[in-house]
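Protein 1 of 2
SEQ + STRUCT:
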Amino acid sequence: MPIATVNPATGETLKTFDALGAEEIERRLALARTAFEQHRTTEFGLRAELMNRAADLLEQDQQDIARTMTTEMGKPIVAARAEAAKCAKAMRWYAGHAEELLADEHPSAADIKDAGASRASVHYRPLGVVLAVMPWNFPLWQVVRFAAPALMAGNVGLLKHASNVPQTALYLEDLFRRAGFPEGCFQTLLVGSGAVESILRDPRVAAATLTGSEPAGRSVAAVAGDEVKKTVLELGGSDPFVVMPSADIGRAARTAVTARVQNNGQSCIAAKRFIVHTDVYDAFCERFAEGMRQLSVGDPMQESTDVGPLASEQGRTDLEELVDDAVRLGATARCGGQRPEKLDRGWYYEPTVLTGITTGMRIHHEEAFGPVATVYLVGDLDEAVSVANDSPFGLSSNVWTRDDGEVRRFVRDLEAGGVFFNGMTASHPALPFGGVKRSGYGRELSGHGIREFCNVTTVWHGAEPDANS
């Protein structure tokens, strides 16, 4: 696809960009390697000073970069401002915690002796140049949650962003440059997906991280595996939202609306499959559908808008096909299920609640990337766990219960990278984030995330010779 800003609220192409040529890509790879040799030896104090400065600049730019994100991919402006603020918070968190998270570790005296050493320690050293292949749905946050820990660990970054958010991508390079990071520490590569393989195979690139679709993840993982390079993948999700009889149904239904339509429903960790116990099914469905009907769909630049357009025309077409297939096979649209009649421009779709889902429907197996919820009726805890796990994905999960025994069971048996009780899934710099099954591998954020792109180095010192020997 072309590298261009296309406003999804109108379908208008606002700005196009030329892809970098081979000579410029080579120059930037060389610059990245040179920058790493300088940056890897800097002290944590200096890195923290630069990262905090980047956070300051981002906060100053909050309104402008929020408008850029909304223009490029359609998220409501209120959410765009919140995304910028969250990025600044993560930058400050890593600036304040990186040194302790990467501090040298020392085994016990007994273990050192048993290893035949006089001294032993474990050190975390940066890997080098890391290629980040990032998606459009959280165009600032997805990048910062990689860049902040990577730069604080002493690595440098090359960003291949989604082709429909080029101005946000260029802003990120400029942000780290203005903050004072050495030239080449963080570079944006305006290239198409076809250029990723050759960049990843370049010996100056040490590792890669990708957030995106399952096919994209498979492609990057295959190349990296062939080159024996480390990867972290965060791919699709079809997160369950389980509601048990002891739940606060009012709160659960209100949270379900937000959990489903956050970012216009275009989030890997958005709740998508609502699995409801028969005792509370009718009450939950009624409140949930009514909450979805009440949402304001329209211009994402308006402060009152709850749901903006999908990011692309193809994305809306894909979502429509999933809904149409389900309805044709017997599902019921409790609300929505079509394009809003009042909006004749842009790629909008009504918030939709589908019930009567069966395993033969595509939407049961495929990720619905838009404001469409599927609701399942279950009779007991065992069935709830079974339906929740009946997905190729395992990113996160949400469970509403006040029963301690059920809590223990869901923690033990849900196949997901996270279990959020009585609330909705959210990412935070202090908590590891990632999934299992086809949702990918590795972790972002927290200490786990910053160590993903470190060389965990064992240092062993032989026993000192006996003075009398």
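Protein 2 of 2
SEQ + STRUCT:
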Amino acid sequence: MNLSAAVVGEGVWVLGIVAWCIIRYPFERRAKRVPVVSKRRTGSEAVGLAAALAGLAIVPGFYVATGIPEAADYTAHLWAVVIGTILFCAAMWVFRRTHKQLGRNWSITLEIRQQHELICAGPYALVRHPMYTSFLLMGLSQVFLLPNWVAGMAGLIGFTVLFVLRVDKEERMMLEVFGPQYQAYMAKTKRIIPYLY
């Protein structure tokens, strides 16, 4: 393994996770002050959130802290760290813009807040679920930043579990609340990748 590239990649990953926490914290605090009028929490949603947390934070964090599982390491390259850094920066940019655009509507779980609005501007003008887009970009960046088959792939696996278990429920909830307005929005946007999916 190219030790210096591996160390830089791990450092970028740690800084990215710190940035993620800094971005999320004030929105999470503000959201607690807005009453929730409808909760759609399910067991499968809890599993999805746990999988995303494990894949995007716990497994890679354990690897960065301990180097385990060392047997799954592969050679780190500076070009991969550069790509991973660009992807993580893009993920944090989308993550921040998404939180900012949602404002008081933001929630970590499937909830409808008092005076909830359908947001169709900013990143929501391109995709219906830009928060998932940011998680996908984080997972991809992890592959390039952490030269380990387990830690590197854990983010994409965690994201996929969350996405599969939750996105259909989220869209059903939005259709129930916003009806034809959300149907029209669905017709002109993709789910998480602009112009593709």
